[in-house]
Amino acid sequence: MMNFEENISAISDYMSQVLENYNSLRGKKIDLSQTPFWDAVIISASDSSQEKGYQLQIQEKQERREVPLSIPFHVFSDPPGYKIGCGGSTMFILEKIFEIYGAAMYNMRFLLIPAGGFSQRLPNLSILGKLFSPLPFGESKYQMLDLILATYLPFLKHMPPGVFLASSDAIISFSLSENDTWTFENEGFTALAHLSSVIIGTTHGVYVLPDIKNGDGGSAFMSECLRVLQKPSIEEMHGKGAIVKSSSFIGKNILC
After folding, report:
1. Which of 44, 52, 59, 175 could connect to 14 by a Cys-Cys bridge, CB 3.0–4.6 Å?
2. How far from 32 is each of 25, 46, 143, 185, 237, CA to CA, in Å?
3. With a threshold of 0.85, does the pTM exceed it?
4. How far is the C-alpha of 233 from the C-alpha of 82, rounded, in Å?
5. 192-194 and 253-255: which strand pairing?
6. DSSP characters for 24-57?
7. Out of the domains of life, which is the source (predicted)?
8. pLDDT of 217-238, one tens digit each?
């Protein structure tokens, strides 16, 4: 089992390779039969004005050859009127995808990025969107969109047709093994998780897992999720079984 420093180094090396792999695809037409990638990338917007702004920025990225050129990008804004949250927006987008692709969508893999709303903590990004915030790396201009497109590439070989929902403002780092046997083939929803300190758990969502004695030896494993705690206290995490006591899970990713 790797210690903390070895685990951090492995994640850094792995993510560097992930970015290199994505960089080799930028500005090129992808043959999906040879190179795994999303059949389409879907982005949500809060209203028609934001939708137009996102479309213009995607068009500029395509003209600068900063994204794969053969992959369709779709931007959909929420319908006007009352909103029922991001879940309602997602259902609306799934309906729009069906209008475009029909029954063929059931054989496709979509990357869906909810990006509606206006940033209040980063007002400089409230108009153009956090999804297009510039990042200080990459040979040509990298934005959060590029990082998201790169980050989840390794999941494609584990993913059958379906929709992968990715946050527009979260930077996710991990390392996977070539020996991993897990897949996203279970029906319903699969969520990503990782072990963390109880202090961090008090400000995030926490998954409660069954009492699993050890993983399967890979870098990630599948588990049932018994319940989700939202920003729980340390006492609540102990009381509801959210504390993992086995050291065999250190450095592993969890899918539930």
Report:
1. 175
2. 12, 31, 24, 20, 44
3. yes
4. 33
5. antiparallel
6. TTTTS---TTTS---SEEEEEESSHHHHHHHHHH
7. Eukaryota
8. 567 788 889 999 999 999 999 9
